[in-house]
Amino acid sequence: MTRAPFLRAWWIPACALLASLAGCASPVVGAECRSGLELCDGVCVDLDRDPRHCGACGRACASGQSCDLGTCIGPWGDGGAPEAGLGEAGVADAGPDAGRVDVDASNGWPDGGASDGGIPDGAPADGGGPPVCDVGELLCGDACVRPDSDPSSCGGCGVVCAADEVCAGGVCAAECGPPRGVCDGLCVDLRNDPDHCGACGVRCPSGVCVAGRCSGPLAGHLVVVGHDYQQSRTDMNRIAGNSVFLGRGTPVRVLVYEGEARADAVAGVDAAVAQVSAAIGRTWTRTVAATPDEVPLALADADVFVVYAQSDTPDGVLADLGEAWARALRTFLSRGGVVVLFDGMGANSGTHVILTYAGLFSSTGRTDATDRILDVAMPGDAVALGMPLRYRGERSSVRFETTEGVVVVSDGRGPVVVHRTVRP
Which residues lie below 8 Å from residue 127, measured CB to CB, with a gap of 6+? Predict the structure, then answer.
């Protein structure tokens, strides 16, 4: 796949300037717009509500659509879904939502390119590769399908139901049966389908449907951890466990991607989560995504997505993973999901490359922080609960060259653990 230059780090602050803007026109006060508005074409607008500037200046919604929280909502026009991307990114504040980034669940990309560091080649998907599937979808050939409701791929690619059957929860059956209903020719679960919430055609602006009713926006979490856990200690284990237990479930449903992770890194993370589980009395279940293509589908039944450190995986493969998962990860985060990625020193530019190519994290590189004394910079952050104020970084610890999010742990020169609260 031909790639454009690596994502330039400067798009993050650029997007941050655009995030909270545009709607009804308002005169410019001096050289700046009042709080909550952004200057677009000489007019102050609300980017959360203005269909002419939805989420960013010049990003117009299709005819018949409205703009809700910076995302175009409603039927697509003749031109298909409008381009959309990240809204506010890397905005740090002092409260529990510090480091919030606003995202949408569309398959758009932030404006801008790459930093000059990190990966020598690559960029977000340019339309020349395979489709980018959303949460609950599975890539079959050249198309993304819903194996829970598609009678031509019921339960898996190529599983075709008979002409008089429907696909009900991934199984061919004579009828849907409650709580499912036939909507647009598909058998959908009216309890949790954001496009058919409680009844056919009822779309949830937030993208969240709970028990057949549209829910308000839920905050998601993105945690990037500069420890691969090939070696760990009790105190450091709190970071991995606390990150996973940001998930809301009881038990917390954890989807993990092992990929080419080293066995001791996988075992180390799992042991850390088990330690915190026992300490706080919360339980978790672990499901392995056997292949990258399974991740978007399996995220539909997960509260947390864990990516173990891919220390030996080539940069190009990491970039492909980020591109393939971009849409699903955004949707997952916008529905209140938690993404935890572990990183460490290795033969590549870092596992965080996955998030860079998904448009969720910008870093120009990483630096070895092994044996450095690390400071817990935000002891009140949920990721740091129970942590001492200082600890020593174990083998293969790294710091990230980034200005994004809340710095939970630092080596005195830069962030080792970053936590961003994600709001739809």
Answer: none
Beta bridge partners of 415: 410
CB 239 within 8 A of CB 387: yes
Do residues 115 and 269 lie in contact, with contact meaning Cβ atoms separated by under 8 Å?
no
Per-residue pLDDT reduced to its tens digit, 48-93:
777 888 888 888 877 655 665 666 654 333 333 323 333 333 323 3
Distances (CA, A) of 368 to 177, 240, 351, 388: 56, 19, 14, 22
Which residue, chain included where needed, has tokens 């293969």? Answer: 396
Structure tokens that stand for 413 in this block: 């020169």
C-alpha distances out from residue 303 to 33, 281, 306, 352, Å: 39, 17, 10, 20
421: Cβ contacts below 8 Å, ≥ 6 apart? 96, 97, 98, 99, 100, 101, 219, 220, 221
Whose CA is closest to 361, among 334, 341, 376?
Answer: 341
In angstroms, how far is the first alpha carbon of the chain from the final one? 31
CB burial of 69-106 (b: ≥16 within 10 Å; e: otherwise) equals: bbbbbbeeeeeeebbbbbbbbbbeeeeeebbbbbbbbb
The predicted-structure confidence for 127-172, as pLDDT tens digits, reads as follows: 456 778 999 999 998 889 999 988 989 999 989 999 888 999 899 9
